[in-house]
Amino acid sequence: xxxxxxxxxxxxxxxxxxxxxxxxxxxxxxxxxxxxxxxxxxxxxxxxxxxxxxxxxxxxxxxxxxxxxxxxxxxxxxxxxxxxxxxxxxxxxxxxxxxxxxxxxxxxxxxxxxxxxxxxxxxxxxxxxxxxxxxxxxxxxxxxxxxxxxxxxxxxxxxxxxxxxxxxxxxxxxxxxxxxxxxxxxxxxxxxxxxxxxxxxxxxxxxxxxxxxxxxxxxxxxxxxxxxxxxxxxxxxxxxxxxxxxxxxxxxxxxxxxxxxxxxxxxxxxxxxxxxxxxxxxxxxxxxxxxxxxxxxxxxxxxxxxxxxxxxxxxxxxxxxxxxxxxx
Length: 328
What we know:
- This protein is an alpha+beta fold.
- Helix content is 31%, strand content 31%.
């Protein structure tokens, strides 16, 4: 069948029918490219498409097969940062072509629209997270993208009875679901600033200052998109957040969660706080979400300390990935 290679804008937010067409492309691509992983969740996909990002603007396109949106041959989604710090760059959240429609110009048609939008918005670079060794890497490199931050996806199967976290003299371990309580939001935002020394390779994206308001906006976005958010923090008697870790369930009914940031503030390192907050998180996740079975996370290859912590806790390297970037 001849495939139309005209990439057309998808309304933001898209309708439920358009979400279903988008989901069908992602599901087919996942089955072909990463058959060991579960199909994408409709809750997560719909949330990302239909709820506006907290720090930018989304632009969506599709190459449609036939009349209406009964079948999409490929889809692309772009996040144009608008936070006052990274307005020069953007993130290509997805550019995916249905396996049976590949090598017919669909990907190039989508990229042409993405590039056109980037230039129209005055962006000087764009980045994307790409799995290595697959069609995504080959396509990105054909466009001139370069690997600027090698990393990997790690997965951990939650134990039936997670061990107790080690003792943390001088620190209390607190846990809260959803939005961080106001009394801790400022301290947690300050601790977020310690991510500045995390490996970032040669990416153009700059670290933005965290505030209590920005923290709540990021957490609220996850909740508004249908997900669940859990934080464990090691705190001092003086009200400082010395370490924390975050867990996100994009689909609360699913079996997999995402480990977001794990940070230990420099002044409190080498005291076992990293393993302590992660072990407490395992116990809380098992107790609060009995259906949860796996936790996934990404770690940069050069972040040896975090890789060592994760490996000691049972994470296994699942697949190689990288941040790819293109200068425009």
